[in-house]
Amino acid sequence: MTAKFPKNFLWGGATAANQIEGAWNVDGKGVSVQDLLTGGTVEKPRHFTAKVDSSAYYPSHTASDFYHHYKEDIKLLAEMGFKTYRLSIAWTRIFPKGDEKEPNQAGIDFYHCVFQECHKYGIEPLVTISHYEVPYHLTEAYGGFTNRKVIDFFENYCRVLFEAYKDEVHLWLTFNEINTALMFGGGYIQAGVPVSDGASIFAKITKEAKQKAFQAVHNQLVASAKAVKLAHEINPENKVGCMIAGSEVYPLTPDPKDVRLAQEQMEMNNFYCGDVHVRGAYPAFAKKYWRENDIHLEIDPSDAETLKNGTVDFYSFSYYSSGAVTVHPDKQEKVSGNMSAGTKNPYLKYSDWGWSMDPEGLRIYLNQVYQRYQVPVMIVENGLGAYDKVEADGSIQDDYRIDYLRGHVQAMKEALDDGVDLIGYTPWGCIDLASASTGQMSKRYGFIYVNRHDDQTGDYSRTPKKSFYWYKKVIESNGETI
User: Fold this and answer.
1) Given 12, 160, 284, 397, which residue has the most CB atoms within 10 angstroms?
2) Could you tell me if 269 and 250 are in contact, meaning their C-beta atoms sit under 8 angstroms apart?
């Protein structure tokens, strides 16, 4: 194998505002959909409450308190040698309700400080505009992205960001894991679609909810295309990517029915949104799915042109695990992981949270995506959620995390050798944060340990883990030493 990582490869890490910032009601910030989601576990999923329950724990309210630790945190990222830092902006810090005309200046100022701190160390911000945190007012008053009015609110939000940070940010992502609204939960966390009080974030989508979820995603795809066009107009140096929850799906057996089932899931899970983002139009299989599932989208006559003119500059995605499917019930052994929920793959190992660990799947996925789209590709989430133990000497010996990441970096090298135009890698939760799926602090991903626990104790102090020093060497050697 002769391929090497490009000299300008974007090594870094990723976080999301609702999972790391805390300070949920500070300096004029409004209530987001996340601020009404309780903590949970695999056995007892997070759920929505119509108002804050004083007896419940809401992870986003405190998270890792990045809001007050960002200087310390960015300094640690710089010590690892980060070239880029993927973070999100909390929409409700900029527009507390989402439908205001003028932004909250305190929110604008906060991110100015964050971006300036990044540039101080030569770190390029990669900014997600909407990462699972639609303003709750837009859910309550408009029905979230089921309502076309919200497209206009999003476009106004984007215009404010592109103008305010014109000289500070040149890499943008529109909607985080846009496809997850079609997979579970009815689109509440992803698109602000209303759900009933007490609804689980992993609730199965009913027929009525499916119609709403597909409409919301259509409106988000239109909003994303408008954002891309706007970003290019405001600053031609801007590069805008989509962000897909990537999941390689295998047939469990060579039965052609299993192969076809896996193909259908790959199409709907990965390419339904990806094709619109990159190619500018819905694929044929999407229209067939609408017809067979009685889905009727309200599509404005102008939408086709908007989607065509708003294609992204690069394709980014998250990849944690793969899934397997079969039509044979007698061959199914169930697993309870996030993307890998369903049938267990006997050839893979699984994490404490039931997620398969499959580096080879990343190489397969990278090849599929690049061959399909022929645009630069970036992995913007990848990592292992695990229980970390603080040793008597204060160290965290997370060799299991190093092993997981090493396998995926090796798979990236192999994909580069295959000819994939891979431009960056930002492992998830580079600083410990609240898990999106369970809300737990104990499900840790980071290179940096945060002293904060599920029982809301801890002083938020930061400690580099063993993986911190491993990743530093990976970056220093541009992926040659892993």
Assistant:
1) 12
2) no
The two tokens of residue 154 are 């999003």
Inform me whether the pLDDT recorded for 474 exceeds 60. Answer: yes
Flag whether pLDDT at 341 surpasses 70: no
Mean pLDDT (whole number) for 133-162: 98
Could you write out the three-class secondary structure of the chain? CCCCCCCCCEEEEECCHHHHCCCCCCCCCCCEHHHHECCCCCCCCCEECCCCCCCCCCHHHHCCCHHHHHHHHHHHHHHHCCCEEEEECCHHHHCCCCCCCCCCHHHHHHHHHHHHHHHHCCCEEEEEEECCCCEHHHHHHHCHHHCCHHHHHHHHHHHHHHHHCCCCCCEEEEECCHHHHHCCHHHHHHHCCCCCCCCECCCCCCHHHHHHHHHHHHHHHHHHHHHHHHHHHHCCCCEEEEEEECCEEEECCCCHHHHHHHHHHHHHHHHHHHHHHHHCCCCHHHHHHHHHCCCCCCCCCCHHHHHHHCCCCEEEEECCCEEEECCCHHHCCEECCCCCCEECCCCCEECCCCCEECHHHHHHHHHHHHHHHCCCEEEEECCCCECCCCCCCCCCCCHHHHHHHHHHHHHHHHHHHHCCCEEEECCECCECCCCCCCCCCCCECCCEEECCCCCCCCCCCEEECHHHHHHHHHHHCCCCCC
CATH architecture of the domain covering 10-476? Alpha-Beta Barrel (3.20)
- Dist. CA 134–CA 348, nearest whole Å: 36
Per-residue pLDDT band at 205 (split at 50, 70, 90)? confident
- Of the residues 21, 177, 248, 267, which is catalytic? 177
d(CA 220, CA 464): 38
Where along the chain do its domains lie? Answer: 10-476
Please give the Cα distance from 274 to 279 (Å, whole number): 8
Question: Whole-angstrom Cα distance, residue 138 to residue 134?
Answer: 7
CB 184 within 8 A of CB 205: yes
208 catalytic, yes or no?
no
Is 476 catalytic? The answer is no
**Residues near 435 by beta carbon (within 8 Å), at least 6 away in sequence:** 19, 59, 385, 441, 443
In the set 381, 414, 476, 480, the catalytic residue is: 381
Mean pLDDT over residues 460-473, rounded? 98
Of 50-54, 107-111, 147-151, 362-366, the least confident: 50-54
Q: Which residue is listed with tokens 């890792």?
A: 64
What are the CA-CA distances from residue 298 to residues 139, 156, 185 (Å)? 19, 22, 21
CA–CA separation, 185 vs 188, rounded Å?
6
